[in-house]
UniProtKB/TrEMBL annotation:
GO terms for cellular component: cytoplasm. GO terms for molecular function: nucleotide binding; sarcosine oxidase activity. Belongs to the SoxB family. It is found in: Cytoplasm. PROSITE patterns: RHODANESE_3. Its cofactor is FMN; FAD. This is Sarcosine oxidase subunit beta. Residues 37-79 form the Rhodanese domain. It catalyses: sarcosine + (6S)-5,6,7,8-tetrahydrofolate + O2 = (6R)-5,10-methylene-5,6,7,8-tetrahydrofolate + glycine + H2O2; sarcosine + O2 + H2O = formaldehyde + glycine + H2O2. GO terms for biological process: tetrahydrofolate metabolic process. It comes from Aureimonas jatrophae. It comes from the Bacteria.
């Protein structure tokens, strides 16, 4: 693999940048592999990378129906944090944050991880109680999170309006995770694809899985795709909003609902916004990209759908909230908006593990908040696919928890979980 370094940039520039290699091989599918990953988003690509790097399983293909990173990975607002309420969740997301911290070096690819701080605003007594509970629980779990007064919130994020006389929901304080932040979403997909490909993984684009084949005792033996039949004894499904559709090919039903979730960006402006701000109560979240666009996240639609396009009233509602929190943005124009399909579980925590079908594994249910987990999710899922057993970190995130009532109820804890 061609390595990126300051020296390489200068040397290539002297050669008019003509001989940069392709970042990864655009592979054609082989007849068989040791493992298949269905879905070329960040989680699927990370799984393939760690399968090759940590478990020596390199005869692997990532099958992607469109282009890699074209799903939710390339559509999200890139918020990274680990200050979830329950210990199981905090451990999982903290595992990811620790990997984010060294990811650019590990992949030799700049994923632009920027720990600029994520501040979650409290607007009523209930919010204050919930966020303070999070702060205490996180500290016990060794995860950084701190309570700020409204004035301290304003000092951390000067554009924030804390003048209670101008707001429906005044800012009463906030929880700040300083190590939280953002990363560049498509660079994450490309960085993992490049590093996995260099170790022998086939990245197969325009290859939709249309059926999962099973042998005599029900175990998986391969898949049918739009590019032919492929054999494999192990299959990991990481298809986000399309998980229910793919898993139904093996007669596995999951407690998932799929909803459109939208985001929008403004015209680019000079750096004005130093951190990430989230408000669950009036529902808006915002940061500024390195290009200068304000990156704004809205809520899910109230109804299930596979349209990748959300309702206009949802985006309008979010912009109302943004203008209330940051009145100086009222005159900015929005440049574009889009939607993704998120896969939501009843307790708003993911499912990562084995399924009732031997050889078939699933990683899904990340809902509105899985980007932040990408490296950790890939890391523990690779362990699960390689060994057939969950890593201790993903052991609680089984399908059976919905049968046994051992929920990890981040839905009740936070209402939203970006
Ligand atoms: C608007 C929006 C904002 C968000 N904001 C945040 C945020 O700020 N922070 C955060 O942490 N998370 C956020 N999320 C959630 C986050 O984007 C996802 O949880 C995460 O990216 C999921 O990654 P993935 O790799 O599992 O899925 P994806 O990137 O969607 O990858 C799944 C892939 O599977 C492929 N696929 C599906 N069916 C098949 C098939 N039959 N055959 C082959 N391939 C198939 C799809 O084409 C897709 O590329 C947001 C999501 C959206 C939509």
């Amino acid at each position: 693999m061609q390595r990126f370094s300051a020296y390489a940039v200068v040397r290539k520039a002297l050669g008019s940048n003509r001989d940069w290699q392709e970042q990864w091989r655009d592979a054609a599918p082989k007849k068989s592999y040791d493992a298949l990953i269905v879905g070329g988003g960040g989680h699927g690509l990370a799984t393939a990378y760690y399968l090759a790097k940590e478990h020596g399983i390199r005869n692997v293909a990532v099958l992607e129906k469109g282009w890699i990173g074209g799903g939710n990975t390339g559509r999200n607002t890139t918020i990274i944090r680990s200050n979830y309420l329950f210990e199981e969740s905090a451990r999982l997301y903290e595992h990811a944050v620790k990997l984010w911290e060294g990811l650019s070096q590990d992949l030799n690819y700049n994923v632009m991880y920027s720990p600029r701080g994520v501040m979650m605003l409290a607007h009523n007594v209930h919010d204050i109680q919930v966020f303070k509970r999070h702060v205490h629980a996180n500290r016990l779990a060794g995860v950084d999170n701190e309570w700020l007064t409204a004035e301290e919130c304003k000092a951390y994020c000067p554009p924030l309006n804390i003048d209670a006389s101008t707001m429906r929901y005044p800012v009463l304080g906030g929880a700040l995770q300083r190590r939280g932040g953002t990363a560049r979403h498509d660079a994450v997909a490309w960085g993992y694809a490049r590093a996995a490909s260099a170790m022998g993984v086939d990245i197969v684009q325009n290859c939709e899985v249309t059926a999962i084949r099973r042998g005599g005792n029900g175990q998986v033996v391969g898949v049918e795709t739009t590019r032919g039949s492929i054999d494999a004894p192990r299959i990991g499904v990481v298809a986000a909003g399309a998980t229910s559709v793919v898993m139904s090919m093996a007669d596995v039903r999951l407690p998932l609902e799929s909803y459109p979730l939208q985001a929008l960006v403004s015209e680019p402006v000079k750096p004005v916004f130093p951190c990430v701000v989230m408000s669950n109560t009036i529902h808006a979240y915002i940061s500024q990209s390195d290009k200068g666009e304000l990156v704004i996240g809205a809520g899910t639609d109230a109804y299930t759908s596979y349209t990748q396009r959300g309702g206009l009233h949802i985006a309008n509602h979010t912009l109302d909230a943004i203008c209330e929190l940051f009145p100086q943005f009222r005159r900015m124009r929005m440049l574009r908006s889009w939607g993704g399909i998120v896969d939501v579980t009843p307790d708003r925590s993911p499912i990562i593990g084995k399924t009732p079908v031997p050889g078939l594994f699933v990683n899904c249910g990340w809902g509105t908040g899985g980007f932040k987990a990408t490296p950790g999710s890939g890391h523990v899922f690779a362990h699960t696919v390689a060994t057939g057993e969950p890593h201790p970190i993903n052991a609680p995130f089984t399908i059976e928890r919905f049968r046994d009532g051992v929920l990890i109820d981040e839905a009740a804890a936070a209402a939203v979980a970006h």
